[in-house]
Amino acid sequence: MDICLDAGVNLFDTADIYSDGLSETILGKAIAGRREKVLISTKATFRMGLGPNDLGSSRHHLIRACEASLQRLGTDYIDIYHLHGFDALTPLEEVLSTLENLLANGKVRYIACSNFSGWHLMKSLDVSDRYGWPRYVGHQVYYSLLSREYEWELMPLGLDQGVGALIWSPLGWGRLTGKVRRGQPLPAESRLHKTAQMGPLISDEHLYNVVDALDEVAKDSGKSVPQVALNWLLQRPTVATVIIGARNEQQLRQNLDAEGWNLSAEQVAKLDAASDVTPIYPYWHQRQFTERNPLPIPLPEKQVG
To answer: Which residues are known to be catalytic?
Structure first.
């Protein structure tokens, strides 16, 4: 945390389900005595007990979850309170009125969501507007050079509605650390040994096409592979911040150096071309009507219809 604050990084993200609350407890101890210097983001919605009401975004669960997070964090307010997932069984009026009450009572400063579909987010924003309640200001999403589905609908929505993106797993579930190479086995120390099946399925060909392009840009720019991957994200529309989870001080310092410079337009174009895939319907069809339905990001010439 000292390293982050010295580098100008002051937002720390956690959630109640991380290690069953232990992550919040440890973060609370780390911020003791310097709460005013940091921004805290935490989340609720996923199951935190065996009971029928120990999950979801009901008024009952959100109030209890928020109070429990505040206690573990050792603070009287949360800067950004995320819904970790969408609860389709609780009326949005109940969800958003509860969040409005938490804001009005000073327990939460801003509300955000995570892992929502486009219609989840847009319907939530509409309900907030209808009743004059605070809107989600952020959306914590998975987005990386390996998985650009965020661009198909959620990014245009974010641009249109003014919702910033907080990116989780920006290094593609550990695949863009510079340790994964074409024709080589996984390194002995890698989260992929335990978590590869938990994330999105990535074909080897797509992975190595992206890795090869990253290697070329890293060599050309004099930066490391993860620095290039993170810098690419920092230049994307709607991206407010990327959430990095370093294993040690060396990784942290390297990742922090992804900021303060920019890839060239040519380097960005090379990475865009290597990582682009044909989207699912209706997005591939919408690419053929860019005259009146422009995408937020220019496409390689061969893809424009």
So the answer is: 18
